[in-house]
Write a structure and sequence with these properties.
- With 274 residues, this protein is mainly α.
- It has a single domain, classed as ABC transporter involved in vitamin B12 uptake, BtuC.
- Helix 3 packs antiparallel against helix 4, helix 5 crosses helix 8 and helix 9 crosses helix 10.
- The longest helix is centred in the last third of the chain and has 36 residues.
- The relative contact order is 0.16.
Length: 274
């Protein structure tokens, strides 16, 4: 389980989990799960196009994910955000299907782009992914206060001069950067699972943003580490375990929130009866 190629998998998965936990907290807080689902699909189409043209896959990922983020952020302010996101998703999937249909590596390429090859990561991929991960974390740190204000108390944010549209576009660009970093390694579906399941569970356990971010990272790390170990022992796909464990995290969070509401309600009723 700790052979050379597995150490690469552990290292890259740790970086991805930390970024997914931090960025995913704000995805959940802002209700941007649909956008976080659509942008990796845009990156998938870009990677497929780059593969067809014979250029660096990372270039195609970056270009298409940035275009998807800018398109959703810019057009969403003039219409319904969900409609714009859905149209962007459909367009990117259509382009991805076209590019892959023209490629001689159709089946291996689509599997790798959607589900990733985390167990086949080379040592040369770790440093670039780590550098992009640090850039994502730096972007979130820079946007932290505007993101929190515009997500929780948008009216107060506007009164303090926070431009919600600019913050939205900047955050979508952070998601695009995280996508470009992770899709070649772990796939579009795996990073989406880590951005939603653990952060949503953390939000159920606590309402304090710093604590929720830390808990989100811990849950994402546990999820991806357990997924790699389970995949190694069973020879089942890593993506299956990541998705399943992420869903279990969310289920545990919702169960805790439900129990806490009932406990508080019972305490209030006993207090009133007394």
């Amino acid at each position: 389980m700790f052979a050379g190629f597995m150490l690469n998998a552990w290292a890259i998965a740790t970086v991805v989990a930390v970024v997914g936990g931090v960025v995913g907290f704000f995805v959940v807080l802002r209700g941007a799960a649909f956008a976080a689902h659509a942008i990796p699909k845009g990156a998938f189409a870009g990677a497929a196009g780059a593969n067809l043209l014979g250029v660096n896959t990372l270039l195609g990922l970056a270009v298409f994910s940035l275009l998807a983020a800018l398109g959703i952020g810019s057009l969403g302010r003039r219409g319904r955000h969900d409609v714009v996101t859905a149209l962007a998703l459909v367009m990117m999937l259509a382009l991805g299907a076209l590019f892959l249909s023209r490629s001689t590596e159709y089946e291996p390429e689509i599997f790798s782009l959607l589900f990733g090859e985390v167990l086949g990561v080379s040592v040369t991929e770790i440093l670039p992914v780590a550098a992009l991960g640090l850039a994502c974390l730096a972007g979130v740190a820079f946007l932290y206060r505007p993101l929190v204000y515009s997500s929780v108390v948008p009216e107060v944010a506007e009164a303090r001069g926070v431009r919600r549209q600019r913050v939205e576009i900047a955050f979508l660009l952070v998601i695009a950067l995280a996508t470009a970093m992770t899709v070649p390694v772990v796939g579009a579906l795996l990073i989406f699972s880590l951005m939603i399941g653990p952060p949503a569970a953390a939000r159920s356990f606590t309402d304090r943003p710093p604590v929720a971010i830390a808990l989100s990272v811990v849950l994402a790390l546990v999820t991806v580490w357990a997924a790699i170990a389970s995949s190694y022992l069973t020879n089942w796909p890593v993506g299956f375990f990541v998705g399943s464990f992420s869903a279990c995290c969310y289920g545990a969070g919702r169960a805790w929130a439900s129990w806490r509401r009932r406990a508080v309600g019972d305490a209030d009723r006993r207090l009133l009866a007394a």
